[in-house]
Amino acid sequence: AQKITQTQPGMFVQEKEAVTLDCTYDTSDQSYGLFWYKQPSSGEMIFLIYQGSYDEQNATEGRYSLNFQKARKSANLVISASQLGDSAMYFCAMREGLGAGGTSYGKLTFGQGTILTVHP
Amino acid sequence: NAGVTQTPKFRVLKTGQSMTLLCAQDMNHEYMYWYRQDPGMGLRLIHYSVGEGTTAKGEVPDGYNVSRLKKQNFLLGLESAAPSQTSVYFCAGRRTGQYEQYFGPGTRLTVT
Hints:
The complex is a heterodimer. Chain A has strands spanning 3-5, 10-14, 19-21, 24-26, 33-39, 46-52, 60-61, 64-69, 74-79, 88-95, 108-110, 114-119. The mean pLDDT of chain A is 93. By secondary structure, chain A is mainly β. Chain A contains no helices and twelve strands. In chain A, strand 8 (64-69) and strand 9 (74-79) form a beta hairpin. In chain A, the strands form three sheets. In chain A, strands 2, 5, 6, 10, 11 and 12 form a six-stranded mixed β-sheet that branches. Chain B is mainly β. The mean pLDDT of chain B is 95. In chain B, strands 2, 4, 5, 6, 9, 10 and 11 form a seven-stranded mixed β-sheet that branches. The interface between A and B is medium-sized, with 22 and 25 residues.
């Protein structure tokens, strides 16, 4: 079974500073994927970034980067130059690996989330 | 494009009542998913579908049924609502060959 652990219930950061949100995972699959989603107070789920287990380079999307350390089974999200609008809940999630026949149904397992508060 | 939409946005049910949540998408998603989100927890998969006419159980399927008669729509049914089903329900869709799931805005359901 897959498991995602986010050990930081809440994080605080000063505007314009960088912040790292932790995520560790557990899986026996060889091929899998890791996501980060943002959930603002309005409630919608916003996709931020994706990292495949075989990707050699860490994924980046604008101010977001994913620090992927496969041996340590961690996939931390780094937000550079924090903005007030970054205040939200952040979820780490893992896509199931390939099953028999090389098929993946793309089911996601989510962590419990980290609430990020950006101070002016 | 409307993307992924959910109907209704809010609903209050009494214990034992039934209802159906509708998820509609115009993004040509083959895969569709229903999740629930409870306070202090991440999303958990209820049921999913890999194509029109097919459905499968997720992590927490008890008390729910689903149907996907048309590719664009994925329905989630509660036959006899219980207070433990008070939650926010999210629908998501995904195209074959893509990893990202696109989420609907959510439905907040309260069962009293």
